[in-house]
Amino acid sequence: MTAMKESDRRAAVTAARNEITEHYIYKRLAASAKDPHNAEVLSRISEDELRHYRFWADLLGRRVGHSPPKVLFFCLLARLFGVTFAVKLMERVEGAAEANYTQMADSVPQAADMAADEDEHERELIAMIDEERLRYMGAVVLGLNDALVELTGALAGFTFALAKPRLIAVAGLITGISASLSMAGSEYLATRSEGGELSPGKAAFYTGLAYVITVALLILPYLLLANVYLCLGVMVLTALVVIAVFNFYASVAKDERFTKRFGEMAAISLGIAALSFCIGMLVRKLLPVDV
By CB distance 3.0 to 4.6 Å, which of 21, 58, 129, 267 could disulfide with 66? Predict the structure, then answer.
């Protein structure tokens, strides 16, 4: 240990803390996993993390404590968004740890073996994915994307055509609820006609739920604020936040590129909103209505 550089010593302490923390995270995720295969894989990885920790602790000649807040955070994340999302996020953290191990290989040759283990973990985690919410991701995308495109456009058009926040909210709510029922019904029929393993009822539920939640978030500014153009600005910002949050989730859980998906959805939604706003201006001038 005396041959280790101070920078490597600090890195070893960080590695030990990360390994023991991840051991507890994987252990708790394994205990809560309903799928036996997922539970078995998580338990094996938990033991691997403990073995890695013992290596660093022996090398340092002392014990290193774990991080309870990190354990709580990832376990809560798994409960809210699914074990796959939490584990994939952990996987990204492990990618950084793997780079540290490779850099330390000169003074700690065993670190290279640690990096190889991390690669194996990644493959196992990818193979482990089998959660209902991910199987129905396509239905969620359909509901979310359609609500964003349709309702941002409708609300932008209503903003200039009607010019009264509460009236716009009512019109948007009627439009959104009707469209969500239509989309859920269409998804039910489409899934049933395709056959396959997905349940038509669950596919319709996820599509409709994603649509309704998006509608509620987009209409909320028109219920809380008095200035109609401020409502429009907050609505557009809300749409961007929804797009960003969803695409971050998808990029982590499905290993997809965040920037490309976010850019596409944002460009389509905001482009249609801008076009609809112009149409609303034109309609109000050509067909004046006292509201």
Answer: 21
How far apart, in whole angstroms, are the C-alpha atoms of residue 226 and residue 235? Answer: 13
Query: Which tokens is 22 given?
Result: 């991840």
Q: Are 128 and 38 in contact (CB under 8 A)?
A: yes
For residue 49, how far is the Cα from the chain centroid?
25
Distance of CA 209 to the CA centre of its chain: 16
DSSP state, residue 277: H
* Phi, psi values for residue 290, rounded to 5°: -85, 110
pLDDT digits (tens, 9 = 90+) for 65-123: 999 999 999 999 888 888 878 877 877 766 666 666 666 766 677 766 666 666 666 66
Between CA 207 and CA 142 the distance in angstroms is 6
CB-CB neighbours of 165 under 10 Å? 22
Q: Write down the pTM of the prediction.
A: 0.68
What gap in Å lies between CA 121 and CA 219, rounded to an integer?
Answer: 43
Cβ neighbours, 10 Å, residue 289: 8
Residues 225/159, Cβ–Cβ less than 8 Å: no
Q: What domains, with CATH codes, occur in the chain?
A: 6-130 (1.20.1260), 133-286 (no CATH)
Helix (H, G, I), strand (E, B) or coil at 229: helix
pLDDT in tens, 221-252: 999 998 988 998 898 899 888 888 888 887 77
Locate the DSSP E strands across 2-130: none
Amino acid at 239: A
Q: Cα separation of 67 and 70, whole Å?
A: 5
Tokens of residue 140, six digits: 């969620």
Nearest CA to 53 among 87, 96, 14, 4? 14
Helices (H) and strands (E) in the chain, counts: 11, 0
CB 206 within 8 A of CB 158: no
